[in-house]
């Protein structure tokens, strides 16, 4: 059985676009973009029906199935790359410092980060705990600043689902 390269490329391309849109739509939904996610899903399902019909019309040609599968895998990869570049949403980072007196909070504030700090007691005594909300686009810069000031800092991060009030109230738009 020979490969029909134009059909192979079309099926691959259509499925790549479909899965990329599928990945982005899922991420938009999870991040709370309630108006954009349905629009993306309309385009996504249209592309899906076109791609699937191309494969089902010639199901006896396993090269078409392979093109569909390859487009699927590459589409997931491309969707992840795009989402990583978009860096949608915010991260909440908790930093626990081994020393209770540090200039890190000041440095972070001078670099535009909102920091709430408190003193806590750990196994080996007092610790400084900092809570920092940051756009995902600034996450790596935040980690670099913390590591440059205090390499032994303990950090944990998570994505908050809801943010209201405080330092970020004026910066976060309603989605």
UniProtKB/TrEMBL annotation:
Q: Which InterPro entries match?
A: DUF2179 (IPR019264), DUF5698 (IPR044035), UPF0316 (IPR022930)
For whether the record's keyword set contains Transmembrane, the answer is: yes
Q: Does the keyword Ribosomal protein apply?
A: no
The annotated topology with respect to the bilayer is:
Multi-pass membrane protein
Q: Where is the DUF5698 domain?
A: 23-80
Q: Which positions fall inside the DUF2179 domain?
A: 113-165
Keywords associated with the record: Cell membrane, Membrane, Transmembrane, Transmembrane helix
Listed under GO cellular component are:
plasma membrane
- What transmembrane ranges does the database entry give? 6-24, 36-56, 62-82
Q: Which cell locations does it reside in?
A: Cell membrane
Q: Name one Pfam family in it.
A: DUF5698
Q: Which NCBIfam families match?
A: PRK04164.1-5
Q: Which family does it belong to?
A: Belongs to the UPF0316 family.
Please report the name of this protein according to its UniProt entry: UPF0316 protein LOSG293_290100
């Amino acid at each position: 059985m020979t490969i029909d390269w134009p059909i192979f490329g079309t099926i691959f391309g259509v499925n790549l676009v479909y899965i990329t849109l599928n990945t982005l739509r899922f991420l938009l939904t999870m991040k709370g973009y309630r108006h954009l996610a349905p629009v993306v899903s309309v385009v996504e399902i249209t592309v899906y029906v076109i791609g699937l019909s191309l494969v089902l019309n010639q199901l006896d040609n396993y090269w078409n199935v392979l093109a569909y599968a390859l487009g699927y895998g590459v589409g997931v990869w491309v969707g992840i790359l795009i989402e990583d570049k978009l860096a949608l949403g915010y991260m909440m980072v908790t930093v626990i410092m081994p020393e209770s007196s540090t200039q890190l909070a000041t440095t972070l504030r001078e670099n535009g980060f909102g920091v709430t700090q408190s003193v806590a007691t750990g196994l080996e005594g007092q610790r400084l705990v900092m809570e920092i909300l940051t756009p995902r686009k600034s996450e790596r810069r935040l980690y670099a600043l913390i590591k440059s000031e205090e390499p032994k800092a303990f950090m944990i991060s998570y994505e908050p689902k809801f943010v209201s009030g405080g330092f970020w109230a004026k910066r976060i738009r309603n989605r």
